[in-house]
Design a protein that fits this description.
By secondary structure, the chain is an all-alpha fold. Helix 1 packs across helix 3, helix 2 packs antiparallel against helix 3 and helix 3 packs antiparallel against helix 4. The protein is globular and about 50 Å long. The relative contact order is 0.15.
Length: 116
């Protein structure tokens, strides 16, 4: 259990950075290009880490994966908030959406890994 806490605190930082990078883009014309740039950067970084070798390669891949999941979660959160602002739904306000997507996005990796 002690190791799980260290692992969660370690991967939580790249996830939070990826999430915060895209969760506050509340204009469509800014969100879409930012999401495309994040996807290209994630692909380049993943290819770079995947091509490396050594003891830290697996560790680096895990960190990049969590940063990519965080960016995707932030993109989804911004999209949901934008839809909520357009339709004027009070349930889709940022104060409700951001924490829920943050938690669900972080847990998605573990849910997919455990269900495999």
């Amino acid at each position: 259990m002690h190791y799980l806490g260290h692992f969660l605190s370690l991967v939580g930082l790249p996830y939070a950075i990826g999430f915060l990078a895209l969760c506050f883009w509340w204009r469509w014309w800014l969100l879409v290009p930012a999401g495309l740039v994040a996807a290209v950067l994630a692909k380049v970084e993943f290819a770079s880490v995947n091509a490396s070798d050594g003891a830290g390669a697996a560790f680096g891949i895990i960190l990049v994966i969590f940063a990519m999941i965080g960016a995707a979660s932030g993109f989804v959160a911004s999209g949901v908030v934008l839809i909520g602002r357009t339709t004027r739904l009070q349930a889709l306000r940022a104060v409700y959406v951001l924490p829920v997507v943050f938690i669900l996005g972080f847990g998605s990796y573990f849910a997919v890994t455990l269900l495999r």
